[in-house]
What does this fold into?
Amino acid sequence: MLHRHRELCERAVDPLEIAAGLEAHGITDRTAARFRHRDVFSLAEELYARSPREQVPAAAPTPVPAGPSAFRGFGYALLPGALAFGVAAAGQAWAGPAAVAATVAALVWPGRAAGGRFPSLAHLLAAAAVGWAAYRHGAALAVGLALAVAPGHLVATAFAAGARARLDGSRALEDFADRTRPLLIAAVAVFTGAAAGAAALAGTPLPVAVPFALLLFLTRLLLRHAAHRGPVCAALALALVPVPAAVLAAAAGLLVHAALALSRASAHARP
It folds into this structure.
Protein backbone atom coordinates (compact mmCIF):
# COMPACT_ATOMS: atom_id res chain seq x y z
CA MET A 1 0.00 0.00 0.00
CA LEU A 2 2.81 2.43 0.88
CA HIS A 3 4.68 1.63 -2.34
CA ARG A 4 1.53 2.02 -4.46
CA HIS A 5 0.66 5.41 -2.98
CA ARG A 6 4.19 6.63 -2.21
CA GLU A 7 3.86 9.98 -3.98
CA LEU A 8 0.59 10.79 -2.17
CA CYS A 9 2.06 9.83 1.21
CA GLU A 10 5.32 11.74 0.78
CA ARG A 11 3.75 15.03 -0.28
CA ALA A 12 0.88 14.93 2.23
CA VAL A 13 1.00 17.54 4.98
CA ASP A 14 -1.12 15.48 7.38
CA PRO A 15 -2.82 12.06 7.61
CA LEU A 16 -6.16 13.58 6.61
CA GLU A 17 -4.82 14.43 3.18
CA ILE A 18 -3.70 10.80 2.75
CA ALA A 19 -7.14 9.57 3.85
CA ALA A 20 -8.84 11.81 1.30
CA GLY A 21 -6.45 10.65 -1.43
CA LEU A 22 -6.97 6.98 -0.57
CA GLU A 23 -10.73 7.43 -0.77
CA ALA A 24 -10.34 9.07 -4.17
CA HIS A 25 -8.50 5.92 -5.29
CA GLY A 26 -11.36 3.69 -4.12
CA ILE A 27 -9.95 2.62 -0.74
CA THR A 28 -12.76 2.06 1.76
CA ASP A 29 -12.95 1.14 5.43
CA ARG A 30 -13.48 -2.46 4.36
CA THR A 31 -10.22 -2.36 2.41
CA ALA A 32 -8.46 -0.87 5.43
CA ALA A 33 -9.74 -3.76 7.56
CA ARG A 34 -7.73 -6.16 5.38
CA PHE A 35 -4.63 -4.29 6.55
CA ARG A 36 -5.73 -4.68 10.19
CA HIS A 37 -6.96 -1.12 10.56
CA ARG A 38 -10.39 -0.10 11.81
CA ASP A 39 -10.88 2.52 9.06
CA VAL A 40 -9.18 4.53 6.33
CA PHE A 41 -8.18 7.27 8.77
CA SER A 42 -6.24 4.79 10.91
CA LEU A 43 -4.54 3.38 7.81
CA ALA A 44 -3.66 6.90 6.67
CA GLU A 45 -2.01 7.64 10.01
CA GLU A 46 0.27 4.62 9.66
CA LEU A 47 1.15 5.49 6.06
CA TYR A 48 1.90 9.06 7.11
CA ALA A 49 4.15 7.84 9.93
CA ARG A 50 6.01 5.42 7.65
CA SER A 51 6.53 7.89 4.78
CA PRO A 52 9.95 9.59 4.59
CA ARG A 53 9.85 13.38 4.68
CA GLU A 54 11.91 16.26 5.92
CA GLN A 55 11.55 16.76 9.64
CA VAL A 56 10.10 20.24 10.21
CA PRO A 57 9.48 21.44 13.77
CA ALA A 58 5.76 21.58 14.38
CA ALA A 59 4.47 25.03 15.15
CA ALA A 60 1.75 25.63 17.68
CA PRO A 61 -1.61 26.01 15.95
CA THR A 62 -2.81 29.59 15.90
CA PRO A 63 -6.00 31.07 14.51
CA VAL A 64 -5.47 32.39 11.01
CA PRO A 65 -7.21 35.71 10.44
CA ALA A 66 -8.88 36.45 7.15
CA GLY A 67 -6.15 37.66 4.82
CA PRO A 68 -6.21 39.95 1.81
CA SER A 69 -7.19 37.06 -0.48
CA ALA A 70 -10.38 36.45 1.52
CA PHE A 71 -11.44 40.09 1.28
CA ARG A 72 -10.44 40.18 -2.37
CA GLY A 73 -12.56 37.09 -3.08
CA PHE A 74 -15.59 38.65 -1.42
CA GLY A 75 -14.99 41.85 -3.38
CA TYR A 76 -14.97 39.89 -6.61
CA ALA A 77 -18.23 38.20 -5.55
CA LEU A 78 -19.85 41.60 -5.07
CA LEU A 79 -18.97 42.74 -8.58
CA PRO A 80 -21.60 40.78 -10.60
CA GLY A 81 -24.51 42.03 -8.52
CA ALA A 82 -23.22 45.59 -8.38
CA LEU A 83 -22.62 45.69 -12.13
CA ALA A 84 -25.95 44.11 -13.05
CA PHE A 85 -28.00 46.15 -10.59
CA GLY A 86 -26.28 49.39 -11.60
CA VAL A 87 -26.79 48.82 -15.32
CA ALA A 88 -30.44 47.81 -14.78
CA ALA A 89 -31.08 50.85 -12.58
CA ALA A 90 -29.62 53.06 -15.30
CA GLY A 91 -32.17 51.63 -17.75
CA GLN A 92 -29.57 50.27 -20.16
CA ALA A 93 -30.76 47.76 -22.75
CA TRP A 94 -27.71 45.57 -22.25
CA ALA A 95 -28.45 44.93 -18.56
CA GLY A 96 -29.45 41.32 -19.28
CA PRO A 97 -26.31 40.32 -21.26
CA ALA A 98 -24.09 42.07 -18.69
CA ALA A 99 -25.74 40.19 -15.84
CA VAL A 100 -25.44 36.86 -17.69
CA ALA A 101 -21.73 37.40 -18.40
CA ALA A 102 -20.98 38.47 -14.82
CA THR A 103 -22.90 35.56 -13.30
CA VAL A 104 -21.22 32.91 -15.42
CA ALA A 105 -17.79 34.48 -14.88
CA ALA A 106 -18.34 34.02 -11.15
CA LEU A 107 -18.43 30.24 -11.66
CA VAL A 108 -14.80 30.33 -12.84
CA TRP A 109 -13.36 32.18 -9.83
CA PRO A 110 -13.28 29.44 -7.16
CA GLY A 111 -10.36 27.74 -8.90
CA ARG A 112 -10.12 23.97 -8.43
CA ALA A 113 -11.29 22.26 -11.63
CA ALA A 114 -13.81 19.45 -11.74
CA GLY A 115 -12.92 16.05 -13.09
CA GLY A 116 -13.62 14.78 -16.58
CA ARG A 117 -12.97 15.87 -20.13
CA PHE A 118 -13.87 19.20 -21.78
CA PRO A 119 -13.05 21.48 -18.80
CA SER A 120 -15.01 24.47 -20.12
CA LEU A 121 -18.17 22.60 -21.07
CA ALA A 122 -19.93 23.27 -17.76
CA HIS A 123 -19.27 27.00 -18.04
CA LEU A 124 -20.50 27.10 -21.64
CA LEU A 125 -23.69 25.26 -20.69
CA ALA A 126 -24.19 27.59 -17.73
CA ALA A 127 -23.85 30.60 -20.04
CA ALA A 128 -26.36 29.09 -22.46
CA ALA A 129 -28.82 28.21 -19.70
CA VAL A 130 -28.67 31.63 -18.00
CA GLY A 131 -28.81 33.47 -21.34
CA TRP A 132 -31.80 31.43 -22.48
CA ALA A 133 -33.56 32.03 -19.16
CA ALA A 134 -32.91 35.77 -19.38
CA TYR A 135 -34.29 35.79 -22.92
CA ARG A 136 -37.46 33.97 -21.84
CA HIS A 137 -38.12 35.71 -18.51
CA GLY A 138 -36.47 39.10 -18.91
CA ALA A 139 -33.33 40.87 -17.74
CA ALA A 140 -34.65 41.04 -14.16
CA LEU A 141 -34.00 37.30 -13.79
CA ALA A 142 -30.37 37.70 -14.83
CA VAL A 143 -29.97 40.62 -12.43
CA GLY A 144 -31.42 38.52 -9.59
CA LEU A 145 -28.96 35.72 -10.33
CA ALA A 146 -26.07 38.19 -10.35
CA LEU A 147 -27.17 39.58 -6.98
CA ALA A 148 -27.13 36.04 -5.56
CA VAL A 149 -23.43 35.56 -6.38
CA ALA A 150 -22.19 37.36 -3.24
CA PRO A 151 -24.26 35.36 -0.70
CA GLY A 152 -23.41 32.23 -2.68
CA HIS A 153 -19.71 32.99 -2.22
CA LEU A 154 -20.13 33.45 1.54
CA VAL A 155 -22.21 30.29 1.98
CA ALA A 156 -19.82 28.22 -0.17
CA THR A 157 -16.83 29.46 1.83
CA ALA A 158 -18.55 28.64 5.11
CA PHE A 159 -19.49 25.19 3.84
CA ALA A 160 -15.91 24.44 2.78
CA ALA A 161 -14.55 25.53 6.16
CA GLY A 162 -17.17 23.54 8.05
CA ALA A 163 -16.55 20.41 5.99
CA ARG A 164 -12.81 20.68 6.54
CA ALA A 165 -13.37 21.00 10.30
CA ARG A 166 -15.56 17.89 10.23
CA LEU A 167 -12.87 16.05 8.29
CA ASP A 168 -10.37 16.93 11.02
CA GLY A 169 -12.68 15.51 13.67
CA SER A 170 -13.88 12.37 11.90
CA ARG A 171 -12.50 8.89 12.49
CA ALA A 172 -14.24 7.04 9.63
CA LEU A 173 -15.48 7.86 6.16
CA GLU A 174 -19.07 7.03 7.04
CA ASP A 175 -18.83 9.28 10.08
CA PHE A 176 -17.58 12.14 7.94
CA ALA A 177 -20.36 11.63 5.38
CA ASP A 178 -23.03 11.58 8.10
CA ARG A 179 -21.70 14.83 9.56
CA THR A 180 -21.27 16.61 6.23
CA ARG A 181 -24.67 16.03 4.60
CA PRO A 182 -26.60 18.09 7.21
CA LEU A 183 -24.04 20.86 6.67
CA LEU A 184 -24.76 20.80 2.95
CA ILE A 185 -28.52 20.90 3.54
CA ALA A 186 -28.06 23.88 5.87
CA ALA A 187 -25.91 25.66 3.27
CA VAL A 188 -28.56 25.06 0.60
CA ALA A 189 -31.30 26.34 2.91
CA VAL A 190 -29.37 29.51 3.77
CA PHE A 191 -28.55 30.20 0.14
CA THR A 192 -32.15 29.57 -0.93
CA GLY A 193 -33.29 32.28 1.46
CA ALA A 194 -30.60 34.65 0.17
CA ALA A 195 -31.55 33.89 -3.44
CA ALA A 196 -35.18 34.65 -2.67
CA GLY A 197 -34.15 38.01 -1.26
CA ALA A 198 -32.04 38.76 -4.34
CA ALA A 199 -34.93 37.83 -6.62
CA ALA A 200 -37.32 40.08 -4.70
CA LEU A 201 -34.83 42.94 -4.92
CA ALA A 202 -34.50 42.46 -8.68
CA GLY A 203 -38.26 42.17 -9.13
CA THR A 204 -38.35 38.72 -10.70
CA PRO A 205 -40.76 35.89 -9.71
CA LEU A 206 -39.38 33.63 -6.98
CA PRO A 207 -40.55 30.31 -8.55
CA VAL A 208 -38.45 31.13 -11.60
CA ALA A 209 -35.36 32.72 -10.02
CA VAL A 210 -34.78 30.60 -6.92
CA PRO A 211 -34.42 27.17 -8.63
CA PHE A 212 -32.10 28.71 -11.21
CA ALA A 213 -29.97 30.35 -8.51
CA LEU A 214 -29.82 27.07 -6.60
CA LEU A 215 -28.73 25.25 -9.76
CA LEU A 216 -25.87 27.71 -10.25
CA PHE A 217 -24.91 27.55 -6.56
CA LEU A 218 -24.65 23.75 -6.66
CA THR A 219 -22.69 24.01 -9.89
CA ARG A 220 -20.23 26.34 -8.18
CA LEU A 221 -19.87 24.01 -5.18
CA LEU A 222 -19.28 20.93 -7.30
CA LEU A 223 -16.79 22.62 -9.62
CA ARG A 224 -14.94 24.08 -6.63
CA HIS A 225 -14.66 20.70 -4.92
CA ALA A 226 -13.51 18.86 -8.06
CA ALA A 227 -16.58 16.66 -8.47
CA HIS A 228 -17.01 14.96 -11.83
CA ARG A 229 -18.53 17.41 -14.26
CA GLY A 230 -20.73 14.90 -16.11
CA PRO A 231 -23.78 15.26 -13.82
CA VAL A 232 -23.20 19.03 -13.65
CA CYS A 233 -23.31 19.33 -17.43
CA ALA A 234 -26.37 17.08 -17.61
CA ALA A 235 -28.25 19.27 -15.12
CA LEU A 236 -27.31 22.46 -16.97
CA ALA A 237 -28.38 20.91 -20.26
CA LEU A 238 -31.73 19.94 -18.72
CA ALA A 239 -32.21 23.58 -17.68
CA LEU A 240 -32.20 24.49 -21.38
CA VAL A 241 -35.43 22.56 -21.95
CA PRO A 242 -38.28 25.10 -22.35
CA VAL A 243 -40.52 23.44 -19.76
CA PRO A 244 -41.37 25.24 -16.48
CA ALA A 245 -40.38 22.27 -14.29
CA ALA A 246 -37.08 21.60 -16.09
CA VAL A 247 -34.95 23.94 -13.97
CA LEU A 248 -36.49 22.67 -10.74
CA ALA A 249 -35.84 19.07 -11.79
CA ALA A 250 -32.26 19.96 -12.76
CA ALA A 251 -31.62 21.62 -9.38
CA ALA A 252 -33.16 18.69 -7.48
CA GLY A 253 -31.09 16.16 -9.40
CA LEU A 254 -27.90 18.15 -8.86
CA LEU A 255 -28.68 18.41 -5.15
CA VAL A 256 -28.84 14.61 -4.91
CA HIS A 257 -25.52 14.35 -6.74
CA ALA A 258 -23.99 17.01 -4.47
CA ALA A 259 -25.14 15.15 -1.35
CA LEU A 260 -23.20 12.11 -2.57
CA ALA A 261 -20.14 13.82 -4.06
CA LEU A 262 -19.56 16.44 -1.35
CA SER A 263 -19.86 13.92 1.49
CA ARG A 264 -16.65 12.26 0.30
CA ALA A 265 -13.46 13.17 2.13
CA SER A 266 -11.58 13.48 -1.17
CA ALA A 267 -13.80 16.41 -2.16
CA HIS A 268 -12.34 18.46 0.69
CA ALA A 269 -8.66 17.68 0.34
CA ARG A 270 -6.38 20.64 -0.03
CA PRO A 271 -6.05 21.74 -3.70
